Amino acid sequence: MTTSPHAATAAKMPPQIPYIIGNEGCERFSFYGMRNILTVFLMTSLLLAIPEDLRKAEAKEVFHTFVIGVYFFPLLGGWLADRFFGKYPTIFWLSLVYCAGHACLAIFEDSIKGFYFGLFLISLGSGGIKPLVTSFVGDQFDKGNRSLAQKVYDAFYWIINFGSFFASLLMPVVLKHFGASVAFGLPGVLMALATLILWSGRKKYVHQPPRGANPHSFMWVVWTALKSGGLGMTVAALGVLLAAYSLGQMGSLGFVAAVCLALVLVMGFGGIGASLQLDRARGVHPDEAVDGVRAVLRVLVLFALVTPFWSLFDQKASTWVLQADQMSKPAWFQSSMMQALNPLLVMLLIPFNNLVLYPALERMGLKVTALRRMGAGIALAGFAWIAAGVLQLWLDEGATVSIVWQVLPMRC
């Protein structure tokens, strides 16, 4: 059913939306504010006891282990919200955990154990709320104003990059001139403000109750299909064995690469195995549940690529920062400030894509779907890493390379 022009005109923006967007802007500043100076702090302060030739590898290992936590804990946050507490209570309480993590970073700047515990709390808090805030926004709309949801999501994504942009510019300067306690404490203040803004709108939100246990969830349908035996179970078991082998090679591959490869193997082989005999789940589960799982499995290969995509993307806050340290740049410019370019481009490209590029492509007969956008993004990410690799080869050969060259992979 389409929305009539009159209904679209009469639709009103939910009054609680500004609270959620304000919360997200402050939270993203706090996250990117600490994340974008983390590698520099590890290299120049916390890990000084480690020999210099080993320090870069250790700093990258710590950073990406933290990032893995950020992308793992959404599973926990989503499960807690859906099964027990609902979205708002889960977001609020995990936000308090998030604040405690920032406090640990500011207090334990000279203690490896205390600092790492703070990183754990931030990965738990940030990761736990990650899948909930976006869907919580969707809960605030009904049939009468659903036409406004896309505008809100565009504003939502824009404010994320707004917070990231200023955090990337300001926090390296704060770290240099005021020290780690202030540099990690300021994002903590912003996270506390984000939590306060969220709490202030608590009486205005639409609250969806938790759904409780679902015997026909995605995982139960997949397990029913696989446990019936046959070729599908063999394929899925092969994926588990290969994943176990990958984890066993952690010493040579490194923790981050081994874990990411293991996740891709389990998702890829498990998805193929389940799709081979998914119809065996019919009768045990409703047809609509089985058909829903089949629809997800059709795009599972693309989602399996999301893991390496984000693993590569987040190296812009570790490997690319260390690369930028080797490049020529103005004396006032800090290497981590280069990360501000990415959110700046996103803020510019969101209105350009929606107002110019996508309408032009659709006039040419090319429908711009979400999956096509994701596929194009993954392809461009590949080109970005080729460009970054070429820059590193130049540096390894002893060439003087301007930091301006990092604009090329950033633009991809």
TrEMBL record:
Pfam families linked: PTR2
Spell out where the chain crosses the membrane.
29-50, 62-81, 88-108, 114-134, 181-199, 220-247, 253-274, 295-313, 340-361, 373-395
- Keywords of this protein's UniProt record, alphabetized? Membrane, Transmembrane, Transmembrane helix
**Which Gene3D superfamilies did the record assign?**
MFS general substrate transporter like domains
- What membrane topology does the annotation report for this chain? Multi-pass membrane protein
SUPFAM superfamilies found in the cross-reference section: MFS general substrate transporter
Does Transmembrane appear among the keywords? Answer: yes
Instruction: Give the UniProt subcellular location, in the record's own words.
Output: Membrane
UniProt keyword Membrane, yes or no? yes
What family classification does the UniProt entry report for this protein? Belongs to the major facilitator superfamily. Proton-dependent oligopeptide transporter (POT/PTR) (TC 2.A.17) family.
Q: Give the protein's recorded name.
A: POT family proton-dependent oligopeptide transporter
